Structure formats: C-alpha cells, structure tokens
Amino acid sequence: MNIYKDYIQEIEERKNQGLHPKPIDSAELLSEIIAQIKDLDNEYREDSLKFFIYNTLPGTTSAAGEKAKFLKEIILGQTVVKEITPAFAFELLSHMKGGPSIEVLLDLALGNDTAIAKDAAKVLKTQVFLYEADTDRLVEAFKNNNAVAKEILESYAQAEFFTKLPEVADEIKVVTFIAGEGDISTDLLSPGNQAHSRSDRELHGQCMITPQAQQEIKALQAQHPDKSVMLIAEKGTMGVGSSRMSGVNNVALWTGKQASPYIPFVNIAPIVGGTNGISPIFLTTVDVTGGIGLDLKNWVKKVDANGNVVRNENDEPILEQTYSVETGTVLTINIKEKKLYNGDQELIDISKAFTPQKMEFIKAGGSYAIVFGKKLQTLAAKVLGVDAPLVFAPSKEISIEGQGLTAVEKIFNRNAVGVPAGKVLHAGSDVRVEVNIVGSQDTTGLMTAQELESMAATVISPIVDGAYQSGCHTASVWDKKAQANIPKLMKFMNDFGLITARDPKGVYHSMTDVIHKVLNDITIDEWAIIIGGDSHTRMSKGVAFGADSGTVALALATGEASMPIPESVKVTFKGDMKGYMDFRDVVHATQAQMLHQFGGENVFQGRIIEVHIGTLTADQAFTFTDWTAEMKAKASICISEDDTLIESLEIAKGRIQIMIDKGMDNEKRVLQGLINKADKRIAEIKSAEKPALTPDANAKYYAEVVVDLDQISEPMIADPDVNNVDVSKRYTHDTIRPLSFYGGVKKVDLGFIGSCMVHKGDMKILAQMLKNVEAQNGKVEFNAPLVVAPPTYNIVDELKAEGDWEVLQKYSGFEFDDNAPKGAARTEYENMLYLERPGCNLCMGNQEKAAKGDTVMATSTRLFQGRVVEDSEGKKGESLLSSTPVVVLSTILGRTPTLAEYTTAVDGINLTKFAPSNKSLVM
C-alpha cells in the first residue's frame, strides 16, 4: 500500500499543476494495483481498474510485464475480473506493442487450448514488433508442424498487419494556426530549458510555444471540431535547429489524435506546414508519428517584367504573398489529388508530402510499423519458402548510366541493404542502410529509452559497431532534476549495450563530454553512417545524420535506417587564408558567399554538403561539418587526403584508448573493437588497397560552391539581427557580418567559449591570448565575464599535460570541481574567467543562461531567441556567434573590438590555419 499511496499523493500534487496521473511504468506499483483489483472489497479497486486499463505504459516497461501476465491469467480463467473479459484482455494485449505482450500471445497461440490459440493468433497477426526470440519460437513451432504457427507466418508473409488497416481518407480538413513568423526553431515547440520533463509527455506539453497559444489552439478546436489544427511557420521553415521528437510530440499532443485509448498522452498524426517547408530532420520525426508536413510556398520572390528578382535597399529579395494562411483559415488537404485547396480554389501541388512511402507511414500510424513490418514479411516468406507479395511501395531506385558517384552516394551504396549485387544507386533513391555508429544524448535519452521500450527492444543490434550515451547536455548543474533522471538513463542504456558517460556501478569517473566530439572520435571509418540524437551529429569522418529520439532508438534496435539518398552540394576553396584569421571565419564566410552566389537561395538546405577540406584533421574539420546544421544542410561529408585521414584515425585511436583506460569499455569490448577497425582502415590506406574516400570525377552535384579565401579580410560574425523590421529575418543563421560592421562600439555583456564548435586548438588560442594581453598591458582585466566550457575531459587532460590549463587557472576566478559539482544554475556573473565543467553549458540553455537582455559573444552554434539568453523587459537578448579570439577580446574590452585591436591581439598566435589541398580529391 505504501507505493500506491505515494502514487495517490503524486496525483494530488499533479492536480495542482493541471495534470492527470502520471503513466505507470513500475512493476512494483502495478503489482499493488493488480492485488487491489483482485480484492473485490478493496476501497481503491475502481481507481485501480482505471489505472491498469488506461494508464499503464506498454512495450518492455516492467509494468507492461505485470500487465501482460495478469491478462494471461484472465484469458486462461485462472483469475476472473468481471470488468475485464477474456475478449477485452486480448484487446488490451493488442495495444501493448510488443515485448511481454508478444511473449504472452505466443504462449497462448502455441498452447493446447484450441479456442484460445485461435484468438491469440488473431491478435498476433496484427502485431509487428517481434524480435528474434519471438520469431524463433514461431519458426520452431512451424517446423514441428504447428498449424497455428503456420497460419500466423502465412499472414505475416502476406503483410496482413498492414493490408487490413483502414485506408487513408481522401481528404483532410484543417484550420490553420500561425505558430510564428520566420524560421520556427524546435526550441519554440520544446524549449531546451524544459528538457528535464520530456519523458513526462503531458507535463512537457505545457511548455509548447506559450500558454496563450495553447488556449488559442483549444479555441480553434472547439470552433472546428471536425478539423485538424495545422501549425504553420509563416515566411519561414518549420522545425529548424534541433532533432526533437519532443517538439513533434508536443505538436501531436495539442493537435494530433490519440494513438490508442489505452496508452496515455501518446498522440500521432500532427499536421505542420511552413512557407519554406519543414526542416529535414523535423520532417523525419513527423513521419515517425504518421504525420503530414507541407511545403506551403505561400510567399514567393517578387519579379519584375523581365523576370528578375526585385530587391530592397538591403539587396534582399522582396516577397509576395500568393495566398493567405492566417490563423483560422480553413483549408482542405486533398490526398487523392495531392493538392491543397481553400474551398474550391486550388492553391498548390503537395505531392511531395504524399509519396507512396509517406502514405504508408500515415496508414500505419508511423514509420516504425513499416520498418518492422517489412522485416517481418521478409522473414516469414523466407521461412515458408515463398515469394513475398509486393505489398509495400517499391523503393524508388535511380541508376544513371555513365554518371559517377558523389562521396555520399558511395557510402550509401556500400551500406545498402536489400539491393541486388552490382546495382548502383544515385541521389533520390530510397534505401535501407546499415548504421555503424549511434549516439544518444541525455536530454532526449529518456525519450529514446521510452521508444526502445515501446518497440519492445531489449538489446543493441549486433550490426552497430559502437554506440554512446552522453551526459553533456546536463553537465553544468548536478541539480535534483539531473540526479533523478541521469542515473536512471545511464543504467538503462548501459544494460542495453551502449558505452555510457556515467557508469551505473560507479566504477569510473563520470564523463560529461560533448556527444558530437565523442562520436567524432569513435567514428573510425570514413565510409561509416552515423545516427545521433542531436542536430549536430555531423562528423568529419563518414556521413552523420542528426535524428529524433525515435530514429535513434530504431537505429539502436535494428542497426538500420531508411531514407532517400540525398543530393549533394560540392564545396571547394581557392585563394589564401590571411594569417590573422581563424578557420571559424572561413566557416561563416562559406555561408555568406554561398547565399551571395545564388542570389539569396540557400542551396545547402536539405542537402549534403560535400566539403573538400583535404588538409585539416578531424578536430579542425569538425568545425566546418558541425556548423552545417546551421546551414540547414541535411548532413555533410568531409573529403580528406590519405595522410590527413591517417592522422585523424590515429588521434581517434588514442582517445578511444583513453576511454578504455578509464574503464568505459563493456563486456563485448566494443571500444577495443573500434581500435582494431581503425588499425585495419589505416593499413588499407597505407597499402593503397583502399585509399581515402573520394567522389568520382564525373559525379553530379545539385550545385557547386567555390569559397574564395582572398575575399575574407576580417573576422565574420553570425548575428541574430534581433531588431530587423522583418520578423522573419530575425534569429536565422544567414545574417553573417564582418567585424567592422560593429565599429568597435557594440557592448558585449558576456563571452562564451565552449560547445561542440571548439577543439583543443581553441583552448590553446585562449591561453596564448591571455599571455599576449598580459605581456602588452601588464595584466589581464575582464570588462565582461568569460565562460569557458571545454568540450571533453580528454582536452582538459591534454591541456594539463602541455601546460595550457595552468595558464587558464592563473587567470580564472572559478574552476569546476567534479567532487562537488554545482547544485544550482548560475544566475549572476562577475567580470572574470569561469572554467566550467566539460559539456554544452550555455549553448544548450537548459541549465545555465546569460542574464536576461545580455548581448553574448559566443563560439556556440545557437542564436535562437531565448536559447543562450532570454529577453529582458527593456532589451532583447542576443547571441552573436564568432571565433575564439573575437570572443576573448570582446570580454576583455567589454565591447566588440576594431579590426586593428583584433590583429594586434592575435599577433604571433597560432590560430587554426587552413590551406586548400593541392592534390586531386576526386577519383
């Protein structure tokens, strides 16, 4: 009774927050609830029945195990519950999505009671979340001439779990809701500072947009009960910035439909739109939930009589509205015709949103069911010795004779599953690929764990070479929220088979290293495919895709991912980089020059950036590939010379060895296996058996961008442009300005050096600049706080060994202490240097933040409203993004430096240099 009474007390506390009872995932609590159901005189019996039926999480939660076991007792007549008949028990099992429920259904289907076996088989035919242990039982029974097993396998071979689902409606009526103007970050839909609540879906739903917006959505639903609310990014792209399943979950919670009456707060089928469409990662997440994402194109560039784009005084294209989607507009999505209508008026073609594959996701209620269903059909047909009928839409295959392959096309062809030998696929082809490396981060990790439970996965796929669970997004503050969530997450992932930042047994020191940096180190093959639970999963080796927590779970469980082969944009360099410039300036200039070359069109958006870096090792090249998330690219790929790649792999080996030495390897010696694979790859390159990956000379690209280094004459800054009169132009990463724009007078309230965009070289630049300033001025005096968060502990250790950490300690007023980590977020900063714990820190914005209204100069990647800094009542907070030396000098001066001040401060300092490769980087 103690556990149940605690639950009742929690329910009362949640009522004060306007929340329903929290869904049950604990076997202990559900066991007590079951005991109360069995006790006909129990005062809590009626509520216990409701909790059991409607409020228990499915899949592989321990509560699901207890629920399935009790339902089995009822079906077998061992327990009688008048409110739950055997038929209702079977219905409840059918909604439990795998794991213990499948085990129970197989027990019943393969049992001796013919009538029960028939009913169990009927339910099993609708299920797709079966794993080897489940299918092995079916196959074994089939081999022993079990008729029910044969019947189930025949149903699977025919894919009746899909074909017997209701067809998608011919049209859907929607009513529009403008969520905001300009690009809408997933931070608006699921704020980073509320990351701790993401696994509590109802609670987290309260943070979407604003309470006022939530009430407006409810009012629209009341006015239009027969329509779905479509969330829209007016004059922008929906879902930029991060790969948040929680953002889609929130949209579905407020505007979607309940997946099952017996699964609380799991909604599906959200409908979202954007003038410039949906961010690629976000659209994948929408697919996971069987939703719809529309490219509305309701604003277009104005052209004159000659067809030339009309521009304003800032040389920006002027936009014209082609049709209105203001809040409250009723539209019709005609799925049959693949058109969008306002009444009888046809607005646009929306066929891209309703490809055969996307139609399957909508019909099945999400992409997972299709992925698992295809595997199940293939297996059943193979066991039966029959050809699987063509039930699912055939994968789109594009093969162009005589056309070479881009680097990413080569990787996809190498890792493709189910493609006939010798068949070569080009961009646009749909393909299943094996995934080599997977990363889960800590603010989405609990959701990934929930997704794994819901798809009944219990162990990592043997196909995956290595997987890592980070602790970086919650590294800054070891508060009560982190203490409640992180150990639980680390234990689950460690048990599942991942290398974890924190050892559940407490054997090794907790590592809060930035996830992208770790993944960059453990990627030991430039032919690898990497999936990670963060938009900045963009490695300098291999091709990496940021993904939602569900896609990460799918990759962990199956070792596979499905997607079209993306188009690529080739980026090369010419000219010479000036000695006083940092490579971060080249990164920003690439975006600025690309936009200029293509008249404001972002040719990177939704495509792969194939960057011919050549001579930069993995750490430095990562600065470019990491930033491509802000370029709105789907991913990026780095082309390296042989010697450079070997050097990068040797660095990776050394860092993986450090992880091993710290005790982080697991029983399967995954980390040692990565070192062995790296040795093999290095040997292949040295022997010329398999040189470093390069594209073919006759590969075809969507576009080619040539970056002229001679044009980059001063540091470049990405500015959120918070006061732009056009709201849609604020908080994008497309406003890149030279340092001189600020005239040396813009006040800087705080500086931040950290996040995934910096490497050891940046920390050494910081140390050298401090020594320079002291030599020039006699002392180092900060006119604004400088927060420094190294990306990894390895970097801290290397800096200590090389003497640079001692320099940083000398000038710091605070240094992190892992033996006594901060228990509360910092709210005020003094004008001094803070050496913070390795991790994301201010860039994440969920724990530490700058003071409201501050102007922050940061090496970060995030300039979204409210992320690094919130607005004050009288001033908008702004996060300007620049190189390490600009940040350092800005905090020492308390303002932006002039170019003369900057060049003096960096004189003699070893900045990150770059010279284009003088070798051919194509085959």
Automatic annotation (TrEMBL):
The residue ranges of the Aconitase B HEAT-like domain are 6-162
Q: Where is the Aconitase/3-isopropylmalate dehydratase large subunit alpha/beta/alpha domain?
A: 410-894
Q: Name one GO molecular function term.
A: aconitate hydratase activity
- UniProt domain Aconitase B swivel: residue ranges: 176-405
Q: Which UniProt keyword terms apply here?
A: Iron, Iron-sulfur, Lyase, Metal-binding
Which Pfam families does the entry mention?
Aconitase, Aconitase_2_N, Aconitase_B_N
Q: What is its EC number?
A: 4.2.1.3, 4.2.1.99
Name this polypeptide is given: Bifunctional aconitate hydratase 2/2-methylisocitrate dehydratase
